[in-house]
Give the backbone structure.
Amino acid sequence: MTGAERDLFHILSNAERRVAQRLATVLDAAGCSVEQWRVLTLLEDGHGHPMTELAEFALLPAPTTTKLVDRMVADNLVYRRADPADRRRVLVYLAERGRHLHTRLSVPLRQLQSELLEQIGDTGEFTGKLARLAVVLDPAPATGREI
């Protein structure tokens, strides 16, 4: 194996790109983008979520998230309501149409995930390490740690 093949950054980027392509193939058939799927997935818990949380979960900048949510509102996938605890804040909720779309897409996406994990022989160790890597790389907690 050459140095380039062992480069963690390249391996992670390449894997992410290929997984996103597989994910997009399933989602495109339903007219749903990867970013819309992420929003639907977060909202699936039935709770309202603020735009900042949606942006973080969808891995998008705030202005892009606002435009995405605007389109999703227009498509009757989500709706906005004032936060009952703070009327200045807006929460986004999953509309019935969005819930149906999420339910319909969950089955093939769970199947795709199972196939990928089976192909790499993951018993939880791989996904656990990736989750730990995400925590280690999270810039939010200013602990002074370096990579």
